[in-house]
Amino acid sequence: MEIEMRKFGPNSRASMNNKLKQYKLDVEIIQKEMKKAIDVSSNFRNYQSINQNDPERNKLLQIHSSLMNTNDTIVRSTQIAIETEQLGNNVLTELNEQGERLRNANDQLDDTKSALYRSKRILKKLSMG
């Protein structure tokens, strides 16, 4: 590029020279960024390979798995408790209804008893008199 710039006049050469310097700076910056990215990638791969064999990491993964299983168990237990509570409420409601029917039947039985007693007295009076 520098050789080709010599073909142009001094005004054009100065403008092209500035652009060439800027392009070279841009290329250097990009090369530095690429080198950093490669280093970071290499470090990450090293970190991953070290971490995969790290007993502390494995222990943490086991603990995390255990916590997740415990959480699932708690969620299922909570659901079962809610269903059991709903079932208990339904049973209580039904027992209250049955109790009310029994009280009504007892009241009817008392009424029938009273009616029989009165009928008996009336029949006695009729037979005596």
Model description:
By secondary structure, the chain is mainly alpha-helical. It contains 3 helices and no strands. It has helices at 2-5, 10-52, 55-128. The longest helix has 74 residues, at 55-128. It is rod-shaped and about 155 Å long. The N and C termini lie far apart (147 Å).
From N to C, what is the helix and strand string?
A: HHH
The biggest sheet, with number of strands, parallel, antiparallel or mixed sense and barrel status, is: none
Count of runs of 4 or more consecutive helical residues: 3
Q: Assign an overall shape.
A: rod-shaped
Structural class: mainly alpha
Per DSSP, what share of the residues sits in E-state strands of 2 or more residues?
under 5%
Mean pLDDT metric:
84
What is the count of β-strands?
0
Report how far the terminal alpha carbons are from each other. 147 Å
Helix percentage: over 70%
How is the secondary structure organized here?
Layout: H1 2-5, H2 10-52, H3 55-128
Key descriptive features of the protein:
mainly alpha, 0% strand, 129 residues
Task: Give a quick precis of the structure.
This protein is an all-alpha fold. Helices cover 94% and strands 0% of the residues. It has helices at residues 2-5, 10-52, 55-128.
